[in-house]
Amino acid sequence: QALPYVRCVGEAWPLTQERARLEGEALKEEFLHCPEHVPRVWKYDDSMKTIIMRYIEPPHIILRRGLCQGILYPLLSTHISSFMASTLFHTSRLALPETTFRAAVAARMNPEMCVITELVIFTEPFGEAGNNKHTSPQLDAA
Asked: Is the predicted pLDDT of residue 44 greater than 70, yes or no?
């Protein structure tokens, strides 16, 4: 369920709940092009801002958690490259008519998540930031 803020930060970092609908739509589109690597979305409930999707049974864990635990995934690069090639091509201007592509881009615009991605993924990890929680000095020389 989408909270009206970033879960790990709290109410100090508000977000619209519209992102849950956009995420559900993205998962549905990705499933069309790469069902072997994307869980099926059964329903999106707008009143509860909830995505109802296929249960992925254990031992599945979130990839980030596994990587942080040092788990090796020998097929990760193959799976990710297949997922990216299929989904990025089939949703691109190369595969879609111009008007269809432009309408899809406009319908899925999510400025809040772009800001979070740019900040948390592409900016903060490379310098001093309040959200960084690494242990010094292990990452200081990297």
From this structure: yes
Select from 81, 3, 69 the least CA-distant residue to 36: 81
42 contacts 54 by C-beta, under 8 angstroms: yes
Nearest-angstrom CA–CA distance, 30 and 84? 9
CA distance 8 to 99: 38
Tens digits of per-residue pLDDT, 17-42? 888 899 999 999 999 999 999 999 99
Q: What local confidence, expressed as pLDDT, does residue 84 receive?
A: 98
Residues 1, 49 contacting (CB under 8 angstroms): yes
Sign of the Cα torsion 66, 111, 27, 83 reads negative
Contact 38, 83 (CB under 8 A): yes
